[in-house]
Amino acid sequence: MARLFLLPFLLALGWTIYLSYYRISLYQGRKGYYWIIAGTGIMAMFFGLMLWLTH
Question: Which ranges of 1-55 would DSSP assign to H, the alpha helix?
Fold first, then answer.
């Protein structure tokens, strides 16, 4: 559970590799980074809420 903080970094790294493989600029792929930040933020809030509720 403590290693979940690596998830956004790994997703962003994967997205960057994907963009460079298909020769898409980082500017054009910025929406993917927004989705990564939003998705992992929602997941962090959910896990924080579940931790708070179960203690």
Answer: 7-21, 30-54
Q: Judge whether 29 and 19 are in contact, CB under 8 Å.
A: yes
CA angle 29, 30, 33 (to 5 degrees): 105
- Cβ–Cβ under 8 Å, residues 38 and 11: no
Those residues with Cβ within 8 angstroms of residue 40's Cβ, 6 or more apart along the chain or in another chain: 7, 8, 11
> Which is nearest to 33 in space by CA: 24, 46, 45?
24
**Domain limits, the chain:** 9-54
pTM above 0.90, yes or no: no
| pLDDT digit string, tens, across residues 2-54 | 788 899 999 999 999 999 999 999 999 999 999 999 999 999 999 999 999 99
